[in-house]
Amino acid sequence: xxxxxxxxKRLFREQGPLLILIGLMFLIFFAQxxxxxxxxxxxxxxxxDVMESWNHLLEGRSSVADxxxxxxxxxxxxxxxxxxxxxxxxxxxxxxxxxxxELLGWRWMLVLFVGTSIAAxxxxxxxxRDDLAPMLGASGALMGFEGAYLGLAxxxxxxxxxxxxxxxxxxxxxxxxLAVVGVCLDxxxxxxxxxxxxxxxxxxxxxxxxxxxxxxxxxxxxSAWAAR
Length: 228
What we know:
Elements: H1 3-35, H2 37-40, H3 47-58, H4 64-75, H5 83-104, H6 106-127, H7 139-155, E1 156-157, H8 172-192, H9 200-216, E2 225-226
Antiparallel strand pairs: 1-2
Subcellular location: Membrane
Keywords: Hydrolase, Membrane, Protease, Transmembrane, Transmembrane helix
Protein name: Rhomboid family intramembrane serine protease
């Protein structure tokens, strides 16, 4: 058995669920390209539709259609607009997702993915209640991963991460700083009103939820020790 095959087996054993999640997103993207918008338009999250369904729920007259609309607050995260969109998202999704799997295990990674995706959608909906423009993309969950890593790095002393495509290990502080810079840029763009095509509010919402979860309910990683 070659060294390469051993390495691949180890990779799939340790990061299999994350790789499956990323692979699923690419498969869905290829299906989007093959079948066109009519195939996936009902899976995108439309703020005005979500708010209408929310009002129906408050009024006690929610229907199956309303719950399907609520489901788009997660399904949108599996969709992407073009090859550049999914490639850039999945690159950083892999970096921070793989580190979270190493630190917390794949189950917590999935909890963070679901929780931050929904939080990102809810933030976007809350800021654009009457907007009919649909939202798609895993950026909210990606920013949630970054927020979670920042929370872990502040709360615990973490080992220096080394994950492809980083050429060498870096300090947790440096990687956490990258997350901080990213969310600060999103916040500045959000405050400037430059958000016609990019849901900066969703980015900030996902990041905040990831940070909150890592700072409160997520347990101490086995490879970490208390910060001094």
